[in-house]
Amino acid sequence: MAQDAQKQPPLVIQEQGSFTVGGTVLTAPGSFDPKKPLTPDGQTFHGDHLYAFYQIPPTPHRYPIVMWHGAGQFSKTWETTPDGREGFQNIFLRRGFSTYVVDQPRRGNAGRSTVEATLKPTPDEQFWFGQFRVGVWPKYFDGVQFDRGAETLNQYFRQMTPNTGPFDINVVSDGVSALFDKIGPGILFTHSQAGGPGWLAAIKNPDVKGIVAFEPGSSFVFPEAEVPSPIVTSFDTIAGAPVPMTDFMALTRIPIIIFYGDSIPAKPSDIPTQDAWRGRLEMARLWRDTVNKHGGDVTLVHLPEIGIHGNTHFPFSDLNNIEIADQVSKFLDDNKLD
Amino acid sequence: MAQDAQKQPPLVIQEQGSFTVGGTVLTAPGSFDPKKPLTPDGQTFHGDHLYAFYQIPPTPHRYPIVMWHGAGQFSKTWETTPDGREGFQNIFLRRGFSTYVVDQPRRGNAGRSTVEATLKPTPDEQFWFGQFRVGVWPKYFDGVQFDRGAETLNQYFRQMTPNTGPFDINVVSDGVSALFDKIGPGILFTHSQAGGPGWLAAIKNPDVKGIVAFEPGSSFVFPEAEVPSPIVTSFDTIAGAPVPMTDFMALTRIPIIIFYGDSIPAKPSDIPTQDAWRGRLEMARLWRDTVNKHGGDVTLVHLPEIGIHGNTHFPFSDLNNIEIADQVSKFLDDNKLD
């Protein structure tokens, strides 16, 4: 067996498989000549679709869960954790949900991009160790919910994969919206960079019936007249993105919960990977208040405030991910989303 | 439900998950400064690993099956077929095997490459329609085992994904060998471009206990003194690759079966996507004869010769893929690999 066996009952899956959805088609001018098949004339290129792998239990809950990775990540985010335990893919299957783990357009298995890109192997993992709040390299945070074995860190670094085309918030939110068109009403889990396009997907598609956002990044949408002042951190400047009020109001019609983990400084820090999250958490609170002011139902859970300590940027794969899943299940249950 | 429901009993899975294996690490000179996290100094880059998603039934057969995609493809090759039926991932799970579907290094979810690459969206799908022997664009072959619906072709084209670094036969065969080091003895299924590195993986790792090769491409290894004359086609020239006799002999110690589909011309054709396969089949026969001359056990099945007609370059996902799976099961059974 590949991983340490966990004594769990078997997963029972009525149906599993994969498909692509959404995207566009380029067509080269001219006409195709089968005797010159390597010239592009008259040929097509299908790209910018989303890839999904799905599993459906025998008697699933009403709503499936769509799990959308963050920056540099892919479906693996929700699969086996870096230290070899079950991730949210399995945990929510065991809790009776159909799951759709996706690779967004231009990432991972959805690699065919209609826009050219150059991929360079730039060493950057000590940055990610900090940005993902495992610690400040080479030191792990005290009490961090992250296994300190060497192979865990190896798996963690290798669960990244590059963009195969420019990141485009509209292309990726279109992909997820197309997925909801195909599967119907469901719940959206987002992580980090997917937070922002997640709001757009819910604006675009009323089949998004609720959102669980883990550590949304720097992209928050506000009504045009209510965009707050940018927040300056030692990493970057976080600016709200204006959208028409009619679009914004879509976000007031569904329950949303946002989780942030631990080790986010309350005051400005000269460590950029620390300060980045101070600013994001602050912007998230402004966003929550704005949505709720317009009649929305956003809950922001800063985990240490409810006594859950040590979480990184990946609460769903941290050592206490069952406890995090319980928080999510409570939200789903409270909002009749299960 | 995402796909047309097929009335099948549920899949029962004792354990499923994913991991990466193999690969290398680059380290930039200098030392990491947490206050300048976006400069590469002293940072690392883990790349060139293989990604695997695995499923283990409650009482699996002795040997797991590793399924390795071909050129431009990824794990999807073995998952849901373009027309929405079950692929070999599910079929062999149902037959009691543990399955490992992989993305080779520098492809799909194993995207982090230690060598730079530029990805261009070059229209090429009418070429692939021919090269994968669905037909000669825009005409499907008469009797082809491929659904003619528009959405099937859409899914088929979108199940491609680019190399994220240069294709390197040693890097990818090292990745698969590392997988066998991790999981122990097993069976290797290869498709197309994976055929050649598949022979290398078996040379590198005695835990490869048998190979089922679907339409291996142009890369066949021969003893240095026995490399046949290159075969010239209107697509390319196919040359055997020399390896030391001691390496070659590893391939005589395991059972190997090779399948080729239909629509391969017996005589030279001026349609390059047709003629390419005449040459590959001819080289595969020379290779079979050479391995067997040295005491090996290679069976080459040209499917039309046993009365199975209409197969494309993807027999394992063609409309008759259950019939193909039965041929594979017979091979596994005959060779005590199940």
In short:
The structure is a homodimer of 338-residue chains. With 338 residues, chain A is of the alpha/beta class.
Q: Which features does this protein show?
A:
alpha/beta; 26% helix; Rossmann fold; 8-stranded mixed beta sheet; homodimer; 18 strands; 338 residues
Could you characterize what this model shows?
Chains A, B: One of its GO terms (molecular function) is hydrolase activity. Chains A, B: This is Alpha/beta fold hydrolase. Two copies of one chain form a homodimer. Chain A has helices at about 90-95, 125-130, 150-160, 170-185, 195-205, 245-250, 270-295, 320-335, and strands at about 10-15, 15-20, 25, 45, 50-55, 65-70, 100-105, 115-120, 135, 140, 185-190, 210-215, 220-225, 230, 235-240, 240-245, 255-260, 295-300. Chain A is globular and about 65 Å long. An eight-stranded mixed beta sheet of chain A has the order 2-5-7-6-11-12-17-18, sandwiched between helices. In chain A, strands 3-4 form a two-stranded antiparallel ribbon. In chain A, helix 2 (about 125-130) packs across helix 7 and helix 4 (about 170-185) packs across helix 5. The first copy, chain A, is of the alpha/beta class and about 350 residues long. Chain A has a single domain (about 15-335), classed as Alpha/Beta hydrolase fold, catalytic domain (Rossmann fold), CATH 3.40.50.1820. Chain A has eight helices and 18 strands. Residues about 1-5 of chain A have low confidence and may be disordered. The longest helix of chain A has 22 residues, at about 270-295. In chain A, helix 7 (about 270-295) links the parallel strand 17 (about 255-260) and strand 18 (about 295-300). Chains A and B meet through strand 1, strand 2, strand 4, strand 5 and strand 8 of A and strand 1, strand 2, strand 4, strand 5 and strand 8 of B.
